[in-house]
Amino acid sequence: MAVPTKTVRATVRTEAPEAPSKGLIRQTNEALILLGAEKVFARTGFSGATMAAIAEASGLPKANLHYYFGSKDVLYRAVLARILNDWLQPTLVITAEAEPRTALEQYIRAKMRLSVERPDGSKVFANELLHGAPVVKALLKTELRQLVMDKAAVVQGWIDAGRMAPVDAVHLFFTIWAATQTYADFDVQVCAVLDTDALAEKDHARATEHVVALILRGCGL
């Protein structure tokens, strides 16, 4: 899979703020394009995706994609940045002052919801990693690593204070990611074993309760 090699970077807008109505239209269209792009990149990979297919999935003219994102490379990086940002937001509940059981349960449930609501995004990100993370590697080594180290320090603080059982604080996050994202990345395998064409709401609820209970018990919570 040939992918762009530029890394995902935060951008700062320097032009004057847009009028509220124009800004809302832009936000709406960009959101539609990003969701459409997630679907197409998840199914075809970067190389197989076309701006025409993404436009069709977005329900917008192809010209809009070029207007808002310029190229497929830029759009792909925007999709990855959005996915990672949405995955990291739920970690905000993990603070030194929080109750360990409540914080970890909220985080796990949020990750499970994302696997249900944004399975295509998860697959796009997984595919990027399987190909060596050419676009997001720098971000993984910097921002993601720092966030995990910070949150692992919080977990270690809970352990040191006797508020939860001793576990490897860093690998706890790897375990949570693996347990939650498998329902998006490997849904075909899960469906095959459960003998169903698609996971129903009851299947997701069952999976969520299982993952929450399993991890919390492992943490002595």
TrEMBL record:
HTH tetR-type domain residues are 27-87
Annotated signal peptide: none
Pfam families per the record?
Answer: TetR_C_3, TetR_N
What InterPro entries is this protein classified in?
Homeodomain-like_sf, HTH-type_TetR-like_transc_reg, HTH_TetR, Tet_transcr_reg_TetR-rel_C_sf, Tscrpt_reg_YcdC_C
Q: Which molecular-function annotations from GO does this UniProt entry contain?
A: DNA-binding transcription factor activity; transcription cis-regulatory region binding
UniProt keyword Lyase, yes or no? no
PROSITE patterns xrefs: HTH_TETR_2
The entry's DNA-binding region feature spans: 50-69
* Keyword field: DNA-binding
- What GO biological process terms does the UniProt entry carry, in alphabetical order? negative regulation of DNA-templated transcription
The name this protein goes by in its record: TetR family transcriptional regulator
